[in-house]
Amino acid sequence: MELSHRSKDFAKFMDKTEAVVRDLLCVPDNYRVLFMQGGGSGQFAAVPLNLISRTGKADYIVTGSWSSKAAKEAAKYGKVNYVVAKTERYTGVPDRSSWTFDPDASYVYYCANETIEGVEFHDVPEVPKGVPLVCDMSSNYFSKPVDVSKYGLIYGGAQKNIGCAGVTLVIIREDLLGKPQPICPTILDYTIMSKNKSLYNTPPSFAIHVLGEVLAWVKKEGGMAEMERRSVQKSKMIYTIIDNSSGFYSNNIQPRSRSYMNVVFRVGEGGGNEELEKKFLEKAAHQGLLSLKGHRSVGGIRASLYNAITIDDTQRLANFMKNFREENKI
Ligand code: PLP
């Protein structure tokens, strides 16, 4: 951790980490891999600061809290068109026939997995030809194969599926470099970061090290196809219990948009009972089932089934849910 980031050894370490990213996602040669800081929220600003200057306009497909925040941040730097109708209650990906794109948009933005609501795109959205597609993959990065060539830019904080907080992994197509707004802060400037191989300033070396170790493990376990197989299996185990609980557990997300990563549900007949949810969390914690509380903005329960959660862990949660229902149903 104390190696100079200007040393040859450090450069080798960076190259090795980039190589495993490229290998797992089959990143084409005309894309650059950047290790940045500032988290997903930093990217909410970096994306418009680097990409909106062509027309000053961008399309945002808002399907949950994180894409909503990204759209609000982008509106500071340009004109944002909401592709799908605005709503306070996110329950899935609205039908493609209702989407309206701005013909002048510099890019189309979406969030692949809305962590708070548990809404996931299971396909790459179809967008107007030639307009770069930008995607926030913070909470489903490296959970399934990705066709990078369909995107202009992909980013995600490492702290969910690929390591610990501190590094944000950006993959950008080369032709999108070189057009930042003049006000773009240097450390959010993809062109400068790329020219300096992510070493413009001191990088978060420990977080990059952990990311490299996690991805080496992912590769050893079978890579993207295996992570996807496990994610589908794990989420199905929990959704099946919800769907077979005669309303004791409920999930209000349209089935085709249900997240494989974040299974969000309420406990208690009639759409949720806060007292019962408190009891659920307490009892679960006694059994070592932790971090199940839903985001404060939506309440309820959220089971985050990231790559580090095993099938056995998920089975323990499933068993707990079955028993809890038996003990508490009306
Ligand atoms: N995007 C998504 C999908 C997230 O889940 C989060 C955080 O949970 C963010 C962005 C914000 O990331 P950060 O906390 O790294 O700024």
From TrEMBL:
Q: Which reaction does it catalyse?
A: 4-(phosphooxy)-L-threonine + 2-oxoglutarate = (R)-3-hydroxy-2-oxo-4-phosphooxybutanoate + L-glutamate; O-phospho-L-serine + 2-oxoglutarate = 3-phosphooxypyruvate + L-glutamate
Q: Which Pfam families match?
A: Aminotran_5
Q: Which SUPFAM superfamilies match?
A: PLP-dependent transferases (SSF53383)
Every Aminotransferase class V domain range? 3-317
Required cofactor names: pyridoxal 5'-phosphate
Can you tell me which family this protein belongs to?
A: Belongs to the class-V pyridoxal-phosphate-dependent aminotransferase family. SerC subfamily.
The protein, known as? Phosphoserine aminotransferase
Gene source species: Cherax quadricarinatus
